[in-house]
Amino acid sequence: xxxxxxxxxxxxxxxxxxxxxxxxxxxxxxxxxxxxxxxxxxxxxxxxxxxxxxxxxxxxxxxxxxxxxxxxxxxxxxxxxxxxxxxxxxxxxxxxxxxxxxxxxxxxxxxxxxxxxxxxxxxxxxxxxxxxxxxxxxxxxxxxxxxxxxxxxxxxxxxxxxxxxx
Length: 166
Description:
By secondary structure, this protein is an alpha+beta fold. The chain has a domain at 2-22 and 29-68. The chain has 3 helices and 4 strands, in the order H-E-E-E-E-H-H. The protein has helices at residues 2-16, 70-94, 134-165; strands at residues 33-38, 41-46, 52-58, 61-66. The protein has a 4-stranded antiparallel β-sheet with strand order 1-2-3-4, covered by helices on one side. A hairpin with a 2-residue loop joins strand 3 and strand 4. The radius of gyration is 33 Å and the shape is flat. The two termini are 44 Å apart.
């Protein structure tokens, strides 16, 4: 089914500008349907309704199945979410504002830690985040340098091995 959807996109992009711009001359057949052959059968686009069907030969003859349109599902979900958003906004407007709870930080300023939550023996004025020491940073830098040198060495060896084989 994914191949059919991909083929549909490849098929519809070039035609999207052509529909409605240059209708076929009078007397040259009905332009309601546009057909495109794909691996699974034939895609049929109804240019008046916008429905897409996948048609194929079966034991009983030709059958066409409508390809599910996910856009309708997405549009329905979008409408539902917009309605829910409007209801929540209305509920917020109707609800009287009691202001921030006591001891709460202003909107743009987050406290270092929740009030009353002090880890094992830490002083309340100490921040929870402890930065690494200079020795930790130096060890990390040395480890990264060793990894980089080893990677360069491996690439050099690979290049020389490939050069010898060719």
